[in-house]
Design goal:
Structural class: alpha+beta
GO molecular function, one term: oxidoreductase activity
Number of strands: 14
Family: Belongs to the iron/ascorbate-dependent oxidoreductase family.
Bound molecules: N-oxalylglycine, nickel (II) ion
Shape: globular
Helix content: 25-40%
Distance between the termini: 47 Å
Largest sheet: 8 strands, mixed
InterPro entries: DIOX_N, IPNS-like_FE2OG_OXY, IPNS-like_sf, Oxoglu/Fe-dep_dioxygenase_dom, Plant_2OG-oxidoreductases
Strand order of the largest sheet: 1-2-10-7-12-5-4-3
Pfam families: 2OG-FeII_Oxy, DIOX_N
Radius of gyration: 20 Å
Protein name: 2-oxoglutarate (2OG) and Fe(II)-dependent oxygenase superfamily protein
């Protein structure tokens, strides 16, 4: 039996409205009626406030094999400390996710996006669903839309997987995603463990509580005559604790907010992009900050990315950790993860540092 009570659990978080498939729109965007295209035009998102590609600021690169090795650990941990405190974003190399696991998932995703629309829509997000193939946070017919299709799935703990939302084509998709999910969850917990050490708190306090993982697979179709007036993914910080982002094909698009500008990030081959989410900012009482980022679209090429979003288990508490607050003042409210997730999904929009703002005490 595929549907158990446990994997229906995420349903209580709410759902979204169905929207048009953007990949299909992009295929014939020259003949699209103006009123459809209009919903994707966002002049306020002008893509002109970007730092030059050759700027001197380089996103930190953390080598996980050096963190694992006693000889180089301290040196690499101090780089990690700087990356977390100053950037909130870094690239992770030698992370240990096997190349085969990454390649198999990439291959299956390319095959999924090559399927005809009717086949892809077998897992379309239905009204009231959060999971499936569609777009998140849509609540009205007027709302402006991102130029992307999203495939959102709960992947951890394993009993939260609801396979009716998982593509059955290609047939190896399920295994590929499960292997990738298991491997990335290990990496996320390992990095969270090192962060705990750096923060001088018990490993378990932030690493072990990150029991859940969902994945958001993003497909950004190209758009030749509107790429500078549309946005692939609206500016936002991630609501979870820690995100690992894998870029499936070598097309740039991710930009992070840095010193009031948008800094384009192009991952090193094989690297994962790691970033701190709102839940970790709240747990660390603001010591680590979530950083806003967005995805822009390309005039000629499609872009695909996979965000693995790691969050505390539903029964865990998201609030400033006593060990960090000490004699100080907690800056955020404490809520259970289930309340946190309900609040996150009830805001029908991606915007700014949503959860940090909503849970701030005395804003
Ligand atoms: C996300 C995200 C960026 C990208 O899925 O939360 O920020 O480059 N994605 O696709
Ligand atoms: Ni994000």
């Amino acid at each position: 039996m595929e549907t158990t009570e446990a994997n229906e659990r995420p349903k209580i978080l709410g759902g979204c409205m169905k929207t048009r498939n953007v990949q299909a729109l992009a295929a014939d965007h020259n003949t699209l009626p103006a009123d459809i295209l209009e919903r994707y035009i966002r002049p306020e998102m002008a893509v002109d406030d970007v730092l030059l590609e050759n700027n001197s600021e380089e996103i930190p690169v953390i080598d996980m094999s050096r963190l694992m090795d006693e000889v180089s650990r301290d040196e690499e941990a101090s780089k990690l400390k700087f990356a977390c405190e100053d950037w909130g974003f870094f690239q992770l190399v030698n992370h240990g996710v096997p190349e085969k696991v990454i390649d198999e998932l990439k291959e299956d995703l390319m095959r999924f996006y090559d399927l005809p629309l009717e086949k892809r829509e077998e897992v379309a997000q239905l009204p009231g669903d959060l999971e499936g193939y569609g777009q998140a946070f849509i609540a009205s017919e007027e709302q402006k839309l991102d130029w992307a299709d999203m495939l959102y799935l709960f992947t951890q703990p394993p009993h939260f997987r609801n396979y009716k939302h998982w593509p059955s084509q290609p047939p190896s998709f399920r295994d590929s995603l499960e292997n990738y999910s298991n491997a990335t969850q290990k990496v996320a917990r390992c990095i969270l463990g090192f962060m705990a050490t750096i923060l001088g708190i018990k490993h378990e306090t932030i690493s072990e509580i990150h029991e859940s993982q969902s994945v958001r697979i993003n497909y950004y179709p190209p758009c030749a005559n509107g790429h500078d007036k549309m946005i692939g993914l609206s500016p936002h910080s991630d609501g979870c604790g820690l995100t690992l982002l894998l870029q499936v094909n070598p097309v740039s698009g991710l930009q992070i907010s840095r010193n009031g500008k948008w800094l384009p990030i192009m991952p090193l081959p094989g690297a994962l992009i790691v970033n701190i989410g709102d839940a970790l900012e709240i747990l660390t009482n603001g010591r680590y900050k979530s950083i806003e980022h967005r995805a822009v679209i390309n005039a000629k090429e499609e872009r695909i990315s996979i965000a693995a979003l790691h969050a505390p288990g539903f029964e865990k508490t998201v609030g400033p950790l006593a060990e960090i607050v000490g004699e100080g003042t907690p800056l955020f409210k404490s809520v259970t993860m289930i309340e946190y997730a309900k609040l996150f999904f009830s805001q029908k929009q991606l915007y700014g540092k949503k959860m940090v703002e909503l849970l701030k005490l005395n804003p």
